[in-house]
Amino acid sequence: MAKITGNRDIDRPLGKDASPAKARRGGVLTAERVLVALAAIAILGTSAAISLRDRGFRVPVQVAVSEPVEPAPDAIASQPAPSPDARPQGAPSASIVRVNPDEDDSGEGVIVIRDPSAIGQHPRLAHLPDRALIEESESGPLPVREPGGRRPFDAYARAWSGTRGARIAIIIGGLGLSQTATQRAIDALRPEITLAFAPGGNSLSRWMQTARRAGHEVILQVPMEPFGYPNENPGRNTLTVGTSEDENLHRLRWALARITNYTGVMNYMGARFTADAGHMTPVMSEIGARGLMYVDDGTSARSVAEAMALQKGVPFAAADALIDPTGDRRTPVPAEILKRLDELERIARARGYALGTGSAFDETIDTVAGWAREVTARGIELVPVSAVAVDPEAR
């Protein structure tokens, strides 16, 4: 017969503990202790599940360090791109960059190790230019394709759901010209709305970084000759039909070098220039060679931009409506803006997508901001302009 060990609780008077010290040292496990242990294990398991539930794949590794802060994004943009011979053609390269170095007062920064398998930028890196997509020139840092074919259009595009439902893209342009309006647009508009910067603006690099941190996709407006030029003047370094091809390309590169981290360009004015295939061809070739998208603002029925873009393999989108026409007024009327937005909703439901453009008037920003808060409930997805572009290279 097996020997019975342990305390003989049955022989002990109620309320008396014959060996408290031994019990405290963990003699026989009681039912109460077992229940406590099981409860603790359940709590720990639940906490671990909750902490892991929202973590997606390819989460960057963040490491606190005490090394000197890296240069600001402007300094990064001015550095030359890595040599194509530094790694096999088309091979992705991991890179280590510091996030928000200018906001770190402790002397310690946060380093994010980027996953080379990701095509686009991580949201926390969206304000930092990808040096592999920059070419140094006398005009400044120009966008360029990577040797493996990756384009700025791919790298800087904002992600969207990819579903087949009705979707609308809105571009608000003229940013950088007014500091107040630019800040207002970035703060008030949903990040799905694309922001377009004028090359003649001020502090463009800083505003680009602010917009990208806020989640916006960015494009660049290029001044092109309208009918009635020079009385109607888009501004400095306008591309014109009376200028040589070399000079127009020089002016285009000046504009392209004003900011980084943008997916494409959009004409500013340009009804006369965009109607001239002879002058549009070299411009579209340059845009395509640099891996950028072209957006036609839709204000000219004579534009040959679509045919030129598809011929040159350039991602292309054309606006369906100018949402804030001013006519003879100095500013648009909110009621008219809402009518144009309603029209975009009808187009999106019928065709699957629609694109509208507007300017950074206070009335436009406020009206679009209010509309954007409600449109999702009506079954419309707001998307960046890259989500409605036709990409010949994706076919």
How is this structure best described in words?
There is one protein chain. The protein is α/β, with parallel strands linked by helices and 395 residues long. The protein has a domain at 167-394: Glycoside hydrolase/deacetylase (TIM Barrel, Alpha-Beta Barrel). Helix content is 31%, strand content 16%. It has helices spanning 20-24, 31-53, 73-78, 152-155, 179-188, 204-213, 245-256, 277-289, 305-311, 334-351, 362-375, and strands at 61-65, 96-98, 109-113, 134-137, 140-143, 167-175, 194-197, 218-224, 264-269, 293-296, 316-318, 321-322, 353-359, 381-382. Strands 6, 7, 8, 9, 10, 11, 12, 13 and 14 form a 9-stranded parallel beta sheet that branches. α8 (277-289) links the parallel β9 and β10 (293-296). α5 packs parallel to α11, α7 packs across α8 (277-289) and α10 (334-351) crosses α11 (362-375). The longest helix is centred in the N-terminal third of the chain and has 23 residues, at 31-53. The N and C termini lie far apart (82 Å).
